[in-house]
Amino acid sequence: MGIPLFHVDAFTDRPFAGNPAAVCLLPDGPEPEAAWQQNVAAELNLSETAFLRRRPSGWDLRWFTPAAEVDLCGHATLASAHVLWEAGYAQKGTTLDFETRSGRLSARSDGDGAIELDFPAEPASPCPPVRGVLEALGRDSAPYFGKNRMDYLAAFDDEEDVRTMRPDFGKLRGACGPFRGIIVTAKSSRPEFDFVSRYFAPAFGIDEDPVTGSAHCCLAPFWGGRLGKTELTGFQASARGGVVGVRIRGDRVALRGRAVSVSRGELL
Description:
Layout (H helix, E strand, L loop, with lengths): L2 E8 L8 E7 L8 H11 L3 E8 L2 E7 L4 E2 L3 H13 L9 E5 L2 E7 L5 E6 L4 E2 L4 H7 L6 E4 L3 E6 L2 H5 L5 H7 L5 E7 L7 E7 L4 E4 L3 H15 L3 E6 L5 E8 L2 E6 L1 E9 L1
Helix pairs in contact: 3-5
């Protein structure tokens, strides 16, 4: 028997949109070495590969890009919950608990096909603009520049600044230093969305991530404070695009989205 493997598009209600993730269901017994998991993620070459391993009360969950393990990933967690319910590994309607490098996370179905994730808030603090990062983005300045424990955040006044941005990924790869990458954002001009964003992480093997749940753990408190709202809807304006609903709950953020299975198979 091979190891079950699923390909899921997350933060979308249709295939070939949103953010693709692989979900690998590891067998009982000793966990495979991290190097093996990294090799699988590199071979699959999706923005994230999630590895799930059953525990007495919930699941262990790890996330790997094609180049590195990460501390937090929203879309691959959404994909993991979708797989567990859809493929019968967990009873539909139950809350799923995941033990991760960012502590315990949970997922629940809201009853209409959407999935809500309980994640930590990751607010940004202002910091001096990193000249090399702005140069790589093709911008001289940003009205706001900050950072959290994982990423830089740059906010702009005009949505078109975000949508039309064409970064120099070679320069950006070295400019972000110890951080995964940079979130760029602006207030949305469209009434159905509160803000738009994009996310670049070339040092982690992802020039542009299609839809980044963990970035919204930063974007939710950032825009919630500025707009005076606790519930917001963000649109990630990548080529594939995706919609992320967020709800601020103190030091936690609820991320809401849908997922669609694209294929299933097994690792030999």
